[in-house]
Amino acid sequence: SQKIEQNSEALNIQEGKTATLTCNYTNYSPAYLQWYRQDPGRGPVFLLLIRENEKEKRKERLKVTFDTTLKQSLFHITASQPADSATYLCALEGTALIFGKGTTLSVSS
Amino acid sequence: DGGITQSPKYLFRKEGQNVTLSCEQNLNHDAMYWYRQDPGQGLRLIYYSQIVNDFQKGDIAEGYSVSREKKESFPLTVTSAQKNPTAFYLCASRPNLAGGYNEQFFGPGTRLTVL
C-alpha cells in the first residue's frame, strides 16, 4: 500500500539556521507533491506544490526539492525564525490527498 | 471573504449520541473532504465528495456518515457506532480534480470530545 514517511517527528534548531525536513514515500509514483504548515489547533495551510518534472521550487525563504528516483522530497526553511515554529506536512495525490504525519519544527531564539 | 467554515469549534457529546459537524464553503469548489486528526497520527481521510450527490469512503469511514446535497455543504455525522470519536476534525475543499495540481483549503476544525 502507499506509504508516506516524514522521518522526524520533531526538529529543534536555532534562529538563523536552515531547517531541513524530509518526506519519503513508497509504492507510489505521484505526479506532484505538496507541503502544508499547521499551527496548533488550526487547519493546515498550503505552502508549496512541486511537480514530478521539477527538481526544485522556491518561495521566499522556502525551498522544496523532489527526487522521484529516491522517492523523496526535502523542504528547507532558510534563515529560520521563531515564527516558523509549526508542524509541516507533506502530501501526495491519491484518490484524495494523502498526508504524512508531519514534522514539528521548533525554532529557538 | 471566501473560505471554509466549520461549526462548532468545540463540541461535547455524551457516549451513545450521534452528532453532526458542519462544513460550508463559498469557494465554488467541487471537491470536499473530511479528515480526522489524532496526536501522532497525522490526517486520516474519512469521506470525500467530488461532486454533488456523490461521495466516497476514505480510509476510516466506519462509524461516520456524510451527505452532499449542495455544492457548498458537506456535513459529517459521527454516529454512536464510532468507537473512539474524540479527535480534531478537519474539513477541506479544492477545485475540480480534472486539471490536477490543486491545493487543498482547510477549515479551522472542530474538536469533538466524548464525555
Polypeptide structure, described:
The complex is a heterodimer of chains A (109) and B (115). Chain A is an all-beta fold and 109 residues long. Chain A is 0% helix and 59% strand. The mean pLDDT of chain A is 92. By secondary structure, chain B is mostly beta strands. Chain B has strands at residues 4-7, 10-13, 19-25, 31-38, 42-51, 54-57, 64-66, 76-78, 87-94, 105-106, 110-114. In chain B, the strands form two sheets. In chain B, strands 2, 4, 5, 6, 9, 10 and 11 form a seven-stranded mixed β-sheet that branches. In chain B, strands 1-3-8-7 form a four-stranded antiparallel β-sheet, with no helix packed on it. In chain B, strand 4 and strand 5 (42-51) form a beta hairpin. The termini of chain B are far apart. The mean pLDDT of chain B is 92. Chains A and B meet through strand 4, strand 5, strand 9 and strand 10 of A and strand 4, strand 5, strand 9 and strand 10 of B.
Quick tags:
heterodimer, A: 6-stranded mixed sheet, 5-stranded antiparallel sheet, 11 strands, 0% helix, 59% strand, globular, B: 115 residues, 4-stranded antiparallel sheet
What does the oligomeric state look like here?
heterodimer
Report the strand count of chain A. 11
Outline the low-pLDDT stretches of chain B.
Answer: none
Biggest sheet overview of chain B: 7 strands, mixed
Number of helical segments with 4 or more residues of chain B: 0
